[in-house]
Write a structure and sequence with these properties.
With 217 residues, this protein is an alpha+beta fold. The protein has a domain of 89 residues: Alpha-D-Glucose-1,6-Bisphosphate, Chain A, domain 4 (2-Layer Sandwich). Helix content is 38%, strand content 33%. The protein contains four helices and eight strands, in the order H-E-H-H-E-E-E-E-E-E-E-H. It has a five-stranded antiparallel sheet with strand order 1-5-4-3-2. Strands 6-7-8 form a three-stranded antiparallel sheet. A hairpin with a 5-residue loop joins strand 3 and strand 4. The longest helix has 52 residues. The radius of gyration is 24 Å and the shape is elongated. The N terminus is likely disordered.
Length: 217
């Protein structure tokens, strides 16, 4: 049962994004490329990168030269699974240069199913929070809401069952936290490299688009 739980958790962890990857770059182009041309090129780039740029673009202001977009792209993890990732892109243009800022989402919280159980109270679930490289497990409850780990206010008939359940949870928590911590860090390190590769595809395509002039066909 424990080996099965490990396999299930590894598969589940591999479908979640735990790190945030971001870049900020100022790129100088030919001084003859004015803000209006770069702004138009930027809009064209958004249209090419996303199926519906109208849904992606949250702001476009020619006066400030800023375009902000929030989109979704498919991320393929190391197990070959396709995961939707959210991305925030800010493009600011001026005469002869532009600034591109890209930030890919981070997932800080998700639900898991624990092995600990009790009589007639269903499965035990918990909330895992991952922040600043640390794993915390909280909001531990039984499936039917009978017991909550942090609330010992149960009827006297239930006290014995509740104590047995809480002992089982306490026994499981240290090993579960250590396992989750290792799996998340492994996933995180792999994901950063994939995120960097995806960002490079975005910025390389942008650089090609931004140098175009009004006479290019």
């Amino acid at each position: 049962m424990k080996s099965l739980l490990v396999i299930i958790s590894v598969i589940f962890i591999s479908t979640i994004s735990f790190c945030q990857t971001s870049i900020s770059e100022i790129v100088k182009v030919d001084s003859t490329l004015k803000k209006s041309t770069l702004f138009s090129n930027g809009l064209t780039w958004f249209a090419y990168q996303f199926k519906s740029s109208n849904d992606v673009i949250q702001m476009k202001d020619i006066e400030s030269g800023k375009i902000i977009g929030k989109g979704i792209f498919e991320y393929i993890n190391q197990n070959g699974k396709s995961i939707p990732r959210h991305i925030l892109i800010t493009l600011t243009v001026k005469d002869g240069k532009y600034k591109i800022e890209i930030e890919i989402e981070i997932v800080r919280e998700f639900q898991i199913e624990m092995e600990a159980s009790c009589l007639n109270c269903g499965k035990t679930t918990a909330t895992v929070t991952y922040s600043n490289g640390s794993v915390q497990i909280g909001n531990i409850v039984t499936g039917r809401g009978y017991y909550h780990y942090d609330n010992e206010n149960v009827g006297w008939i239930e006290k014995g069952n509740y104590k047995k359940w809480k002992i089982a949870v306490d026994k499981e928590l240290p090993g579960l936290k250590e396992k989750l911590d290792k799996e998340i860090k492994l996933q995180e390190s792999t994901q950063i490299e994939l995120d960097k590769a995806k960002i490079k595809l975005f910025t390389d395509a942008l650089k090609l688009e931004m140098v175009k002039t009004n006479t290019d066909f």
